[in-house]
Description:
Chain B has 9 helices and no strands. By secondary structure, chain B is mainly alpha-helical.
Amino acid sequence: MNRKQNFINGFIKENPVFGLYLGLCSALAISTTIDNAIGMGLCVTLVLIFSNVIISAMRKITPSEIRIPVYIVVIATLVTCAEMLIHAFMPSLFTSLGVFISLIVVNCIILGRAEAFASKNGVVDAALDGLGMGLGYTFSLLLISVVRELLATASLTLSNPFTSDIIFQINLTSLEAYKISLFSSPAGAFLTFAAFSAVFAMIKNKSDAKEKGTK
Amino acid sequence: MTDLFTLAISAILINNIILSKFFGMCPFLGVSRKTSSAIGMGAAVLFVIVGASCITYGLHYLVLVPLGIEYMQLITFILVIASFVQLTEIIIKKFSPVLYKSLGIYLPLITTNCAVLFVAKDNITQGFNISEMLTYSFSVPLGFMLVLYIFSAIRERLDSSKVPASWVGNPIALVVAGLMAIAFTGFAGLV
Amino acid sequence: MPYVYAFLFISVMGALYALLYYCNYKTPVPKGCEDLKTECDGCKVLSCGNNPAQNKIEGDI
Lengths: 215, 191, 61
């Protein structure tokens, strides 16, 4: 029961992007289209799960004074492998994500979860925590990019990263005259992000008030 | 010489690293509540970026390329940046408590700053020679410091005004950042 | 053969970083600076040494 509650927490109450403001650099820059958002989110989730598992498996033998260097080497190795795999099998994703795949290594989420959770809990717990945080991150990236892509181009396109075939495409041609191209620029990213963080803060305040009221 | 000047102006104003490329966002929201801390953070970032990009540039062209191991670039760079930050902190602790008081506390935060790794990689990707690399590595943190200073000045005023309950803190600060981004796009045709 | 060079190089860099981190850990903070704080509650970077969350015993879930 506790595990399921923790898993759901990663989506709404302790959302890494909107609640804890971690990993913002890539979240704001990537979320222009939902292809990029899903690709980046899945990449971060996989790196997070693997790094949590490895660090949790090694937690008894790493000396506690030099644990940060050890974590950084593990995460950097995983990100280099991920970058090479993406370059080989999903070239369209590689060209659109560019330098941000390498920047996963300094993503505050991964080092933060390794330090706070994986170094103190078992392998299965750490893997589930990585999955929950990674899916929460993907969920928030998807939210921002759906809004931005709809408002900026009046259409939603999802394509297969391996073969660049289009899976589905929604074209709101009737609204195409009203599209706001501000939302594909950095300023639009900031404004969308601000609106979503206000919504999440409101949800969090309400649930905190309800908990305090019942106590 | 005009090329270097154009490079500097475009790195500071036009392609500002926070407002148009989104690197360095984590300290942007966390350390920008007071102007004094913004200047301290900006100075620390300036020092780390200049030092780390010189070392990584040298390592790439003198060790990684001759040995044919460019795929180790990411691991090498992040280890160099982290070691440089630790070395800087040791030197500052031993030789200047005054400097430690003003900027030493921000140093552990800069290891995971996206901006440092981005500048180190960008020097290689854009194929700069040494003078271009030095100009670029010097101007990007100047742009970072400028935006951070302006943002912290606005945020000091925001702290004493009435904001709706769910927008207090980071959401309203992000709206301010969005307005600043729109303002900075006015520099687009400068050079 | 390049793989051996790569492995050796990274081990040397990693050992250098671990050594410097350890030296930094052992170097005492200068007098008068023990209780400096940055305004860190907005940052939530849990791996940073300045974060007040480091003082908690159990990791929060």
